[in-house]
Structure formats: structure tokens, C-alpha cells
């Protein structure tokens, strides 16, 4: 046999093997085409390309909405479905049960779950911190409360026990020597507080934006004290978390989510004009209020020393009974 024929037969055999391999790969791809559980070329090898995030219809979620509308998640090969929850506790519960992959909440429920052993959670990303005039104890002009020292023995609205509205108010009062055990704490959802103040059902309330600006507009609410002072200045307010099991099983998906959210957070913090339409569209805030409200500080990077302030305050106030190390709850961070 001539050398030319040998080379021809080898070339033909090589092409046949390449075609066979390509056919086998195509067949495997077709059999495993569920993009929610397998990697794809569009997802860059992500464990999941479709995830659910439990959210709250609040300002804190603005960067996530921007990441959706601006294509930041899509650029990372991710499709994110937002699942609205009624409260931070409900949002966290969705992640624990597996109904959602990730959840946003004020930090308090996450630390309670960790402290009690109810769930092994990991923080995925920071979200917001208190900024000047974004969170305040307010009253109305005809209320007997004129200063923070007048709060003793009065009726103060809060959303639920051991929430941010409860613990931050107590911390402020403690800083000013006001006895918190003499206050009549009244549980009222944020959207209903302005009406309760106007009707005289409560004497004061701790409100974040946009409820702060809305209460000023509809009930003439005025600030008694800004929460951004003393022990609660720049206090970490909310963040995203998931179960440790999910974090360990989906490292590439987690990193993709973190990168997209970090970019959106940076853009949100740098350009207010990007956030106002988002708040009107998703948080159902009227355009006038969106332009005037004081935004919280948006951040994505998790700082263990800053975050430790939350469980320390909770332990001090009796919201948890055992100390929690915040650094042990921080998931791997993209780019670290």
C-alpha cells in the first residue's frame, strides 16, 4: 500500500472520530437541556442559570431591579425571578424552605435563625446601611412627643418585635437614657403607620424611607431624632443570604449573582437618576416622592467588622441569647 493511501485512510478515520464525538456531545446536551439545573454555554458553566430571589418591595431591592432591567444578570448568564415576600422573616423562610435560592431581609431575622439553630445561613451580599435622614423616629405636630426624652410612657409603632424598627428605636432611647420598658410598643406595618399617627393611635414611630417621606406628605410627620446618630450611625440594615448548602452546591452561580449585583449596586450609588424610575416602577413610589426621599447607603461588599455590629446590638438588647460571629456567616465573595 502506498504512503498516500495510508495518509488518506488516517485522515478519513480522524474525521469520523471527530464527527462521532460531536454527535455524542450533542446528544448529551439534548438529554440534559434543563437550564435551571445544568450548565450551558450561555451560562459559562453555571450550576444553575435560573434562580429565584425572595425580595421585599422596598428601596433596599433597587440594585437587584436595576440588575434585571439593565441586563446585568443576563450578561452573567443568569435569569433571576423575583419572588415577593410579605416581610423579611417570610423572605428568609422562602430561602430556608427551598422556595427561593437567595433572600433579602433586614439582618435581624438571619441572625436570629443562626443563633437559635433554626438554619445554617450564609450572607451572599450586603444591601443597605443607614444614611443621614433615611431612618428616623417621627411624630406629628399635635403629638405630646417633642423630643426623644418624651418617649417614655408613650405609644410607639414598630413592625414586629426584634426587627430593625424595634431594636434601633430601643438603642436610640438607651443612648439618651429613656427607659424602654415603659414604652407601649404597638405593632403596625410600615404602610399603615402614617394613618395611625394622623389618627392619634400612636404617639411616635420609627420609619425608614420611603415611608418617612410619605408620612411627612400625608400626615405632616416630623422627625424627632435621626437614627443615623450614636450607636446606630451607619448601621448595617439589610442584606442577601442563602443556605450554606445552596452556597456550597452553586459556587459559580453565586459568583455570577454577586458580580451582577455588585455592578448594579455601584451604578445605583453613583447615579441617583438610575434609581428613581426603578422605585416608581417596582416599589410603587410616586414620582414626586422618589425625587425627594433620602436614600439609604447602597453597598454590596460584606465587611465582617461592620456586620458584627448587628448581632452585638441584638445580644445587648436581648433579641438573641448567644453570641454570633458574623464573619463565620459570610459566603465566598466573587473576586476575593
What is the CATH T-level topology of the largest domain?
A: D-Maltodextrin-Binding Protein, domain 2
Number of strands: 11
SSE topology string: HEHHEHEHEEEHEHEHEEHHHHEHH
Give the distance, in angstroms, between the N- and C-terminal Cα atoms. 61 Å
Shape: globular
Text of the CATH class of the largest domain: Alpha Beta
What value does the average pLDDT take?
87
Question: Could you characterize the architecture of this molecule?
Answer:
With 336 residues, this protein is of the alpha/beta class. Helix content is 44%, strand content 18%. It has helices spanning 3-31, 62-69, 72-75, 88-97, 107-116, 164-175, 190-198, 211-219, 244-249, 251-270, 272-282, 287-292, 304-307, 309-317, and strands at residues 50-55, 79-84, 102-106, 121-129, 135-139, 155-158, 184-187, 204-208, 222-226, 236-243, 297-298. The strands form two sheets. The chain has a six-stranded mixed β-sheet. Strands 7-6-8-5-9 form a five-stranded mixed β-sheet, with helices on both faces. The radius of gyration is 25 Å and the shape is globular. The N and C termini lie far apart (61 Å). 47% of the residues are buried.
Strand and helix map with partners:
Layout: H1 3-31, E1 50-55, H2 62-69, H3 72-75, E2 79-84, H4 88-97, E3 102-106, H5 107-116, E4 121-129, E5 135-139, E6 155-158, H6 164-175, E7 184-187, H7 190-198, E8 204-208, H8 211-219, E9 222-226, E10 236-243, H9 244-249, H10 251-270, H11 272-282, H12 287-292, E11 297-298, H13 304-307, H14 309-317
Parallel strand pairs: 1-2, 1-3, 6-7, 6-8
Antiparallel strand pairs: 3-10, 4-10, 4-11, 5-8, 5-9
